[in-house]
Design brief:
By secondary structure, the chain is mainly alpha-helical. Helices cover 56% and strands 4% of the residues. The protein has helices at 7-20, 26-44, 55-67, 72-91, 118-126, 135-148, 152-156, 186-199, 223-236, 245-258, 263-270, 275-278, 280-296, 298-301; strands at residues 163-164, 169-173, 179-183. β1 (163-164) and β2 (169-173) form a beta hairpin.
């Protein structure tokens, strides 16, 4: 069994392994790196090294996360990063057995995502200020999020070279650097073309010439900026639900299912690796059907 000379080097090698061997996205790499450093800090405070951690130590670490008020879903995500770390150091020969094997993930119930009605989405579009310079871009962003169901990180990474407005498709790079073709709605195509004419007049920062959606300074938009755009329009439209770019993705999938789309087709468009992830929209559809029953059937109304 090898001795760990430098924890910092082990974490660096771990991140390189995730990027080169497993092809994880930058966001996932950053999350796993934070998770690993969080555990290392915990162990340092107890004068322990990574290869000293046993199942009991890791269980206590998870209990500490819970006591800190970290939500079960976040605890589960952190545990996923820790599991990957210990798989790596076992492969590298720093430990003989994996202490994560007997760890149980925290339990949490399934929460159905918030979904907007078509009328609510229309009200957000109507809330756009026609006098603002960024309105054509923001309009195109809302239509692309709702019309294609892309994640906000996929939206900010969209490239002009991977956008075919004639055929009506975008090439999206999703989780794990997996690429998929996603169709664009006619309205999205029209709005993107309109925005591109305005974009051509911007002073674009070096390295951003191929990025589709730019900020006012000609740089790449951040996920936080897109979140602000969506939330601001929801507030102006008087929508009281908790709205984010992901809400538009949920609405896209739910409305497709309600319209009779095949679940496998929705899975492919959303870029879900497992059909079980997409099946949450079946639960949403059942909830909607029950609501329709409660509101319109005379027996239930009585």
């Amino acid at each position: 069994m090898r001795a760990i000379q430098s924890t910092t080097l082990v974490i660096r090698d771990f991140c390189n392994y995730l990027q080169l061997e497993r092809g994880l996205s930058l966001n996932t790499l950053e999350s796993y790196g934070r998770d690993a450093r969080l555990l290392v800090d915990y162990l340092d405070n107890r004068h322990l090294k990574l290869n000293d951690a046993d199942t009991e130590t890791l269980h206590t670490f998870l209990c500490t996360l819970r006591d800190m008020g970290i939500a079960p879903r976040s605890q589960a995500r952190i545990l996923s990063g820790i599991r990957s770390l210990f798989r790596f150091i076992r492969i590298e020969g720093y430990i003989d057995t994996d202490p994560c094997e007997l760890l149980e993930a925290p339990q949490f119930g399934k929460h159905l995502p918030e979904v907007l009605s078509l009328e609510e989405i229309d009200s957000m579009i109507k809330a756009l200020d026609p006098d603002k310079a960024e309105t054509p871009r923001n309009h195109a962003i809302i239509e692309t999020l709702y019309g294609s169901g892309v994640r906000v990180s996929e939206l900010t990474d969209l490239r002009i070279s991977q956008t075919d407005l004639e055929e009506g498709y975008i090439l999206v790079t999703g989780k794990g650097n997996k690429q998929r073709l996603v169709p664009l709605s006619p309205e999205s195509i029209y709005l993107i073309k309109d925005y591109l004419e305005i974009r051509a007049q911007q002073n674009i920062k070096p390295g951003c010439a191929d990025i589709l959606f730019l900020n006012r300074r000609g740089g790449k938009m951040t996920r936080v900026m897109v979140f602000y755009v969506v939330k601001d329009l929801a507030d102006k439209a008087g929508i009281t639900k908790k709205v984010s770019p992901h809400t538009l993705r949920h609405s896209f999938a739910t409305h497709l299912l309600e319209g009779g789309a095949n679940l496998r087709a929705i899975q492919e468009m959303l870029g879900h690796e497992s059909i079980s992830t997409t099946e949450i929209y079946l639960h949403l559809d059942k909830t909607r059907l029950r609501q329709e029953l409660l509101e319109h059937h005379p027996l239930y109304k009585r």
